[in-house]
Structure formats: C-alpha cells, structure tokens
Amino acid sequence: xxxxxxxxQMLIRRIIVSIVMVVAVLVIVTGAILxxxxxxxxxxxxxxxxxxxxxxxxxxxxxxxxIDGKLLSSRTSTKQSVIAGLHSFIVTRDGYEPWAKxxxxxxxxxxxxxxxxxxxxxxxPETVATYPTLHGEKASPDxxxxxxxxxxxxxxxxxxxxxxxDVKTSSITLSSDDYSDATTEGVAHSFTLGDWDxxxxxxxxxxxxxxxxxxxxxxxxxxxxxxxxxxxxxISLTDLQFAGTNGSILYGLATDGVIRKLDLSAQTISRxxxxxxxxxxxxxxxxxxxxxxxxxxxxHQVAGVYRDGxxxxxxxxxxxxxxxxxxxxxxxxxxxxYVAIAEGVKVTxxxxxxxxxxxxxxxxxxxxxxxxxxxxVDQLQFNEEGDYLIARSxxxxxxxxxxxxxxxxxxxxxxxxxxxxxxxxxDAYLWAVYDxxxxxxxxxxxxxxxxxxxxxxxxxxxxxxxRYLYSIGKSxxxxxLQRVKMILE
Length: 489
What we know:
It is globular and about 120 Å long. The chain has 2 helices and 40 strands. With 489 residues, it is mainly beta.
C-alpha cells in the first residue's frame, strides 16, 4: 500500500539530492580544472600526475605522429597531453624522411613543435639557370627574389623571381652616373653585393675603384632611382645597414668609428650617435647593438645598445682586454627585450627592457641565462622570431631556447677544418655548405639533411611558399642556379 512521504522525509530527500548534485558538480569542475592544468592518470604508477601539452605541426601537414612508440589517432596539425618527463617523438609521412626528437617535458607546460619541416627522401636537383661566371648572389628576406651578379667588374644584375614555379628572370644595369670614375681610363672597378632591405626592394652595393670604395643603394624596381650614398652625403663608410623598408633611412659606420643616421631623401647626416665602434648590427628599424673601444679607456672593449632617439648609447659590458672576442646581438620575444653577449667562451643573455636615457644603463636589463661554450664564440645570433639563440664556436654550437630556458650542444660532422657561418633558413632551421654539399639542420643541431651538391660562398633560400629550396651549384666550369622540391605534390 502506497504511503505518502512526510514533509520531513521529503526534506531529507531533497537535501540528499542537493548534496549529490553539489558533489557531482564539484567533481566535474575539479576534473575539468585538473584536465585543463594537464593532470592525467598515470596507469603505470596508478596515480594522478600533472602532464604537459604538446602542439605538433608540420610542413607539409597530414603527417603521422608517434609518441613513445604509440601512434596517435590524429595527424598533424595535432596536440597531445603527456605525463611530464622524457618522451620520444617520431613524425612520418609517405615519401619523406622521418623526423625524430626526444624532449624532457616539464609538468604544466605547453611545448610547440610547430616548426617541423619534413624533407623528401628523393631529392632531385633541377637546374633553373646557367651562368658561365658568377661573382655574387643574394636572396631577398621576403623570399621573392634572387639578385645574381655574373661579373665583378660589371654592375649588371639579374633578378630571379621565385614566386612561381616557372622562374622568370629580368636584368638591370647601374648607370655610369651612379658610380665614380666610370669613364676614367686605367681605373679598375669591382662591385660587390651586400644586404637587402627587409622589404625586398633595395639592395646595397659596394663599389671599389682603385684604392677607394663607395656605397650605393640599388633600387631593383627602378634602377634609375639608385643612390650613391657616399657621394651624395660626402661620407666614407666601412659599413652601411638599412633601417626600415623605404631604402632612404640607413645607419652607417664611418671610417672614424662613428655611427650616424643617414636620410637619403632629406640628404642629411645625424650627429655622432655612437663613437669608437668596431662593428654594429641593426635590429628592426631603431635598435643598434655594437662592439667598440671604451671611450674612457682605450685598453678596454665595450658592448652596448643604442636606440633611435636616445641621448647616448648604453654600455652593457666592459671587457678589460682588447684580445678577448666580444659579440652582441639583440632581439625581442613577445613583450620582452633580450640581449645576448659573448665574452670569449662565456655567453650571457639579458632580459627586460632596453635602457632609456633617463634610467641607469643596466637597471632594466637583468641576467636571464648564462652558459659556457667549449671555445671562444665566433657567431652569436638570434633567429628572426627571437626565441632561439645560436652561439657557434668553430664547428661546435650551443642552441638556447628562450621560452623553455633549455640549451643543446651539437657539432657539425665534416672533413673541413675551417668553420663557416650558419645561416637561418627559416625560424627554426639553419643551413651551411660543407664538403661540397648544402645541408640543413634544426637550431639544436638535430635532424640533419644533406640536400644537394652546392658551391660555398653563395646564398641558399626557400621559395615564398616553401615548395623549393634554391642554391648555387657547379657543372664543369659553369655555375648553376638549382632547386630541389621540398614539398611533394
């Protein structure tokens, strides 16, 4: 017989249901929070542990990913949570060499493996153009154009358009009005290509005539608008670098060791910005990192930075000898400024804000990391994104990852004894020519791939869409612009 519940029983039932619902909500919310924070149940240890999230992307995409020998159900781009600790990653795709790496992942971190470049197994070089002689060749930073110079004594250049599969070439010739002593008999002339501006329109050219030299900004889209910087501003320079993309604003190092800002449109030269400089480099459009002699003590070296608009440069390191190798490079990663300084074998990375004219010179940049190389560092360079630093000592290198504060040592295997500059192919891969072959490797020295036979001393570059890798080779006495397909159909 049905008995109606009393009010007390109904109240108790409601309380119990409410408690169960609250507990369920708390369990779900707690579980969601733990999941977001990366906690997972470790089946082997039988306990809950905080894991790490890995985001994996490849060029090309749709590649298989195995973690610790277990194949993921999804292809790239993909992500996976793993228990903190050492893990091995293998990425494969038909027709491509496998990619592999082992990483020790910290709990609660997000690791981006978004730079993986898969390399085809069968690399077949294709000749794009042939040159009987070749003096210089430079790829524009926007990956659209190669400028090729066949003869040192002739200011004629070929522009190779890399934007389509069918490569097109055009020619430009510098007017004799743009360089000195063009018609003077008995004067030997030599032209050497320098760097492009970041916009990929203007390129620097050094003209040597007799025992003199001068700098020319070549406008590749309107060669008639090219400017002889040295004669226009009556200044002798040992180095010249673009600031920006309009080709008119540059910073130059004069023969007296002074850095000045040059405005070609206004035909003006600034006051002395930094003095006693031996070498400098530009970051973006307004930051100069430099190495020079201490103005207060000629027996000391200094490394520092100068920003456009500052009243004075800011010395970040003083070295009390002149024979200790000293290098500096600057970058920005997210909202922080970074400066790397190599003093002999010791590398220091500073983090914070570039000092201002009103602040103490070192108060806003604090020590972020330090490491020691096996020998004096002879190349110190951040990648364009600012998250990787390369410190090269001969054939040995140390890569430092800013985001993960992780360093990795590697050595180039070669029969050659003289080290060469490592060049950034993209934001994660480097290239160099050793033993007559072009090879690419990741910033940490892993996943090395020999691409093709190539001549040293010339540039290598990807096309803008990443489909081809261009380099200079040789067949008999002829030079060849060649390419290999990096992304298969």
